[in-house]
């Protein structure tokens, strides 16, 4: 039987995947009105304001920044580098394809954890991971040809972003006990916001920069997408890392494409076929089995 701590970690990981999947669809929709770097700046700024408001309102203890210096610096990997690459990539590819490619993060996490920290990877874990990938293959309609030929530049950018995200997860998981999850997210996103501001300033000053005036509704939508994608998703995910292993938490990132594909169908009218529905069911079933088995063996 799974412990309450394990269940809390699993639920947090699922909620993080839901937020990321839905935010990916939101970002794709908003990119029609905003260039990638400007959108990232708006999203991060809204997330930072939201997170610090929660911290101060709830009077959460804030450790000395010097104690969190190393883990805060990881914000340069994610959200800064990861989502700069993802948002630029989204301008070249479909939201559903981008959602599928985000599942590569879970594989990168397991590989890096094994290489850097000698975390053991069981045969059952590998089998279920392959089962999940087969589900994801059908989630994209059982056809990778289109994924490889359409929007190749965007796809490569997103893959690179997922590797950056995996580096962030593996290294952050080693420092997650340093403070409350939301405090770590707050510091990391301040670092990411500063880095984004510097890069955006360079783009604005040294390129022929222009942007049309978006409607108030689009601006509000961009702000909401930032809160979902950075404030809520990262807090849920770091909470998960406190209760389950980085490898198991990473496997639940495979739900991002499931949520993303469904969201793209519902809100962006991207086509969803029966094979995609079947693939989503396979993915969810495999993740449930992985969670139950790891809970019984005491993985946390």
From TrEMBL:
Record-annotated EamA domain positions: 8-140, 152-291
Ranges that cross the membrane: 37-59, 71-92, 98-117, 124-140, 152-171, 183-206, 218-239, 246-268, 274-293
Alphabetized UniProt keyword annotations: Cell membrane, Membrane, Transmembrane, Transmembrane helix
Listed InterPro entries: AA-Vitamin_Transporters, EamA_dom, EmrE-like
Signal sequence, renumbered to the chain: none
Record's GO cellular component terms: plasma membrane
Domain of life, per lineage: Bacteria
Keyword check for Transmembrane: yes
Protein location: Cell membrane
Pfam families assigned to the protein according to its UniProt record, in alphabetical order: EamA
Main location: membrane
Family that this chain belongs to: Belongs to the drug/metabolite transporter (DMT) superfamily. 10 TMS drug/metabolite exporter (DME) (TC 2.A.7.3) family.
Protein name: Threonine/homoserine exporter RhtA
């Amino acid at each position: 039987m799974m412990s309450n701590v394990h269940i809390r970690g699993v639920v947090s990981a699922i909620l993080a995947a839901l937020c990321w999947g839905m935010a990916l669809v939101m970002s794709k929709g908003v990119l029609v009105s905003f260039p990638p770097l400007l959108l990232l700046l708006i999203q991060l700024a809204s997330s930072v304001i939201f997170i610090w408001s929660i911290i101060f309102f709830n009077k959460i203890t804030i450790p000395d920044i010097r104690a969190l210096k190393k883990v805060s610096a990881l914000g340069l990997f994610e959200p800064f580098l990861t989502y700069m690459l993802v948002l630029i990539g989204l301008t070249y590819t479909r939201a559903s394809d981008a959602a599928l490619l985000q599942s590569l993060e879970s594989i990168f996490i397991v590989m890096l954890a094994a290489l850097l920290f000698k975390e053991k990877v069981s045969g059952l874990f590998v089998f279920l991971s392959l089962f999940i990938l087969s589900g994801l293959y059908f989630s994209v309609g059982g056809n990778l040809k289109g994924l490889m030929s359409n929007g190749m530049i965007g796809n490569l950018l997103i893959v690179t972003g997922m590797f950056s995200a995996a580096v962030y997860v593996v290294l952050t998981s080693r420092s997650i006990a340093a403070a409350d999850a939301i405090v770590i997210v707050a510091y990391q996103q301040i670092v990411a916001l500063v880095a984004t501001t510097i890069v955006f300033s360079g783009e604005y000053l040294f390129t022929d920069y222009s942007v049309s005036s978006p409607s108030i509704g689009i601006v509000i939508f961009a702000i909401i997408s930032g809160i979902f994608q950075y404030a809520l998703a990262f807090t849920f995910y770091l909470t998960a890392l406190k209760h389950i292993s980085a490898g198991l938490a990473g496997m639940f990132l495979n739900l991002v494409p499931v949520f993303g594909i469904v969201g793209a169908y519902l809100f962006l009218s991207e086509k969803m076929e029966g094979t995609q529905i079947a693939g989503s069911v396979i993915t969810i079933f495999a993740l449930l089995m992985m969670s139950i088995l790891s809970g019984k063996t005491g993985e946390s």
